[in-house]
Amino acid sequence: MTTAKRDTYTPDTLLTVAVRVFNERGYDGTSMEHLSKAAGISKSSIYHHVSGKEELLRRAVSRALDGLFGILDEEHARVGTAAEQLEHVVRRTVEVLMAELPYVTLLLRVRGNTGTERWALERRREFDHRVAELLRAAAAEGDVRGDVEVRLATRLVFGMVNSIVEWYRPDGRGSAEREVVDAVVRLVFGGLRTGG
Amino acid sequence: MTTAKRDTYTPDTLLTVAVRVFNERGYDGTSMEHLSKAAGISKSSIYHHVSGKEELLRRAVSRALDGLFGILDEEHARVGTAAEQLEHVVRRTVEVLMAELPYVTLLLRVRGNTGTERWALERRREFDHRVAELLRAAAAEGDVRGDVEVRLATRLVFGMVNSIVEWYRPDGRGSAEREVVDAVVRLVFGGLRTGG
């Protein structure tokens, strides 16, 4: 017999557990039973904190989306040339992805079966669209190449950035974070070729 | 009552169905029952063609891996500067990914729970390693930047390339294929910045 743990969770600490389980089993494959087992508290204790697993998903992807949209409000994303703003946004997106790794991972895996998932996909598209607009402006200003279609370039750049969730694991020292951020910015803007 | 279709499958046409189901449900989540339903033939008919779902997985990922490793034997992957060879390999990798889309998609989603999956992961790592060696040689020859660590650069480049499976769908005309291939080569080698 398993002994239920005393419920010392807050909605935030419960969220940490839920996001781990969602990322391991997939959101669709996670039941309240799985969450209850992982948290070591009863299902009714979980319902004391949240209305159900969809609320946990909404809180989790909101945290990732707030981090990402917050970037667009930063000063360096609003002043300077479009290319400078774009570089700031790319750099900060990688930083937010690494700082909020489990939340961004979950956001990137959302598929669209529930209202919350569809809302999250819509917000992601909106973020990509805002970045694509910056890229378009930078191309118009002549600082970004015009021979790759803007939407395609945005997809490929996010493809590189988002792939980081597949292998990056924090080492607690922060030196790896810095190396990854610099590598992405160098490759995205200058490419592999020397003299770029 | 469903009427079983007359079994006119060959191992190859059965593979097409199996790969579609594996990509939809995940390999772990696919049972022989699912394959039987999708193919419209009985489980024993499937066993007439193959020993089980793991054989189907092996055939499918082999097709993707043969396509990828075949690139490394092509003349342009073996002559010229390392940077030229690398560019050929990147270009052809995108082409093979698009030509063998369902097979490469499956390969990229393999997780390592069975012997076949672990073998596939090992072969993928070997391919990545071969590309990393080319990148290292190109950096030594001075044609590729030396300020991004080789393994990290390889991961990021494959991150961009592999992300194509998430959104690319063939239109049958081939014009989109060419645009994507050119965009990847331009961004990977020259980056977004003009004058690169």
Automatic annotation (TrEMBL), chains A, B:
Q: Which organism does this record belong to? A: Streptomyces fumanus
- Domain HTH tetR-type: where? 8-68
DNA-binding residues (ranges): 31-50
Q: What is this protein called?
A: TetR family transcriptional regulator
- Entries under InterPro entries matching the protein: Homeodomain-like_sf (IPR009057), HTH-type_TetR-like_transc_reg (IPR050109), HTH_TetR (IPR001647), KstR2_TetR_C (IPR041490), Tet_transcr_reg_TetR-rel_C_sf (IPR036271)
Taxonomically, the superkingdom here is Bacteria
Q: What is the lineage of its organism?
A: Bacteria, Bacillati, Actinomycetota, Actinomycetes, Kitasatosporales
Which one of the record's GO molecular function terms can you name? transcription cis-regulatory region binding
* One Pfam family from the record: TetR_C_24
Keywords in alphabetical order, please: DNA-binding, Transcription, Transcription regulation
